[in-house]
Automatic annotation (TrEMBL), chains A, B:
Ranges of residues in domain HTH tetR-type: 6-66
UniProt KW DNA-binding keyword: yes
Pfam families on file: TetR_N
Sorted UniProt keywords: DNA-binding, Transcription, Transcription regulation
Name of the featured protein: DNA-binding transcriptional regulator, AcrR family
GO MF term list: DNA binding
Record SUPFAM superfamilies: Homeodomain-like
Cross-referenced InterPro entries: Homeodomain-like_sf, HTH_TetR
The UniProt record lists the keyword Transcription regulation: yes
Length: 187, 187
DNA sequence: AATTTATCTAAACGTTCGTTTAGTTATTTG
DNA sequence: CAAATAACTAAACGAACGTTTAGATAAATT
């Protein structure tokens, strides 16, 4: 046979993901990706097909990246307190290196809301659906909440999470902390 | 002299604004604007300089459009209840004709958050600053709130407003109503 | 070591973008 | 009515986009 790839696909997907995360899909050009991933356009296309394929792969990579956080959330036994902790965990990456902003899934959801790309929208919808089911599960741990309250609070928290991810792109850590605390004050 | 313009600048700016509102700045092309505004590229450029100029003019137009809502908010005497009503007023355009989504100012703030366009960012910052001042003013109407609580609640509401505008792009009227009600439940 | 073949570089592809320019049309004024 | 000139149409501009292709390079097999 012939020479081997001089890069690891997982490594370069991680770098692509970070760039998409920071700038969004449209605002990230192949030229920027080339530079950030450290490999040539040809290599990107032979590994991922096209920009769209690379983005989908980045989304998958993101999901595995946050799966630990999600599992921790899923396994929690403290009801509402687990949800609150999940909110904190979700935006913790904002204040680490790399300048990632908000939640990649939510950002993508927003960017593609007017778009017709069903493949990506399906990915988002399933992710949001899973999240809602988990939130409901945690809320139901409090036996004093009736079903109607659970649904209302779940919708509230889902929108709050959505809003948080958007706001996290432009607000300070202190503002975000105040926001989360206030959100959970009366649940 | 020579012939007069066959269009009214205010009319075509309104149409441009609606398109920007729906799609955002980058996703709105001159070709789309040409079609929506009903005039030629040449006319757009002679009236507004360039795409950026047209967008700034659309933002100004948006501000005058929402000035009535803002004035109503400013003149309110019911404290927190005024803020809540303002939230409802802010997203009411979502459920009218035209498919506008969320709040143009907030959408712009989000789209340009990673951008270097200081002119637009300044416009956004001043708008947000005014809003925060008004919210604080209304919160202070309740004499029982100490200064620290007022600041915390103002930050909370500002982020909630931000999140609401983002979420309003993708959620139903019922979900949004639930969200607003829950947001104000304990202020 | 020679041959094979996948991976690399780099240049070019066709489109679309925002923008400009040349030429035509129509209205106002003398 | 004729001259002047602003507003119009339509075509073309260079730059950047995502994508493809041709040719050089290097590693694995015989």
């Amino acid at each position: 046979m012939a020479r081997k790839k001089q890069y690891n696909e997982d490594d370069v997907v991680e770098k692509a993901m970070n760039l998409f995360w920071k700038n969004g899909y449209e605002a990230t050009s192949m030229q920027m990706l080339e530079k950030e991933m450290g490999i040539n356009k040809f290599s990107i296309y032979s590994s991922f097909g096209n920009k769209h394929g690379l983005f989908l792969e980045s989304l998958k990579h993101y999901k595995t990246k946050v799966s630990a956080t999600l599992l921790k959330f899923k396994n929690g036994t403290n009801g509402v307190e687990d949800i609150k902790q999940f909110f904190y965990d979700s935006i913790s990456s904002n204040f680490k290196v790399g300048n990632q902003k908000g939640c990649l899934v939510t950002n993508t959801y927003n960017e593609f809301s007017e778009n017709e790309d069903q493949l990506i929208k399906d990915e988002m919808t399933s992710f949001m659906g899973n999240l809602k089911a988990l939130i409901i599960e945690k809320l139901q741990m409090d036996a004093s909440k009736d079903e109607d309250t659970v649904i209302k609070q779940a919708n509230y928290l889902l929108l709050a999470k959505h809003g948080l991810a958007a706001a996290a792109r432009v607000n300070t850590a202190q503002e975000i902390e105040d926001y989360i605390e206030m959100t959970f004050k009366n649940l």
